[in-house]
Amino acid sequence: MSSIPSHPGMPSDGKGLPVLAVEDLRTHFIGRTEATTAKAVDGVSFHVGAGEILGLVGESGSGKSVTGASIMGLVDRPGQVVGGRILFKGQDLRQYGGEQMRRLRGNRIAMIFQDPMMTLNPVLRIDTQMIEAVLAHERVGKSAARARARDVLARVGIPSPDERLLAYPHQFSGGMRQRVAIAIALLNRPDLIIADEPTTALDVTIQAQILYEMQTLCRESGTGLIWITHDLAVVAGLADRVAVMYAGRVVEQGSTRQIIKAARHPYTRALMDSIPSRGVRGQPLRQIPGNPQSPLNRPSGCAFRERCPRATQACLQEPPVTIGGGEGEEGRELRCFHPVGDDSPA
Description:
With about 350 residues, the protein is of the alpha/beta class. About 30% of the residues lie in helices and about 20% in strands. Strands 6-7-8-3-9-10-12-11 form an eight-stranded mixed sheet, with helices on both faces. A four-stranded antiparallel sheet has the order 2-1-4-5, with helices on one face. α3 (about 125-135) crosses α4 (about 140-155) and α4 packs across α6 (about 175-185). The relative contact order is 0.14.
């Protein structure tokens, strides 16, 4: 299997390796011709260290969820990972067979879906599903598995967990089902969790509780977390680093402070400007003009150029990835010819 060195300053698993390193990942939905092939993920690279939380941000259709599914090996035909490496603790998951991936999923790597019914079986009680999730990966008694399930349910804010274990999914509200799905992901204390907008259906109080619990879990256990969302407000209070996706590519990534306080890619800046603010009460919200790029037959060059106020003829070419090294720019990666802060975009 392949292995890689860690990035400078990256939290690692103690052996010098990140928990996850995605390198030039490409996932396409194959059509009969090139023109009918959708390039949903088109050269994505990022890393997640031990105990680190990465916010993966972008509009709907930017490729965030497909990136998560690609890491988990859950992309169905006609979808196919056609290039790149997915290195989990130095081991390339693209080289793993079906049985190897099944041993990893739900054990060392867990995923929380936006729709909890993608996780829960509607005809089985909650205790049955949670106990099976433990016994599938560990040799423990049923009573120990049940006790762990009860403790995790309590941890995600479900009252009377002993009683709730005996219920069926249809007896829970949507928000409660989502909390159960989150609890199942936490059961086996995974090294990596991929969370695909898991708090969308929760009220703000429970959302805050879940976010706090996820942060605590990562800090205490060294679990790496990828939080997929379109909500920059959530990312600002949760993530250590942020990667911004547009049209299947990461256009900017860096520390949360770098991205939130001083976004440099015009798309990231536009996302920030579209967030409601107390300081602009009574004024219309700013909108990003135009529509996101279709993943079908994307033109060459910068995919954001048709919506970007800073675009020039140079943007007809593919912008290179630059890595910041100046004061306050350490570790920032940017894919843009004319970043915000550059006074000469023309």
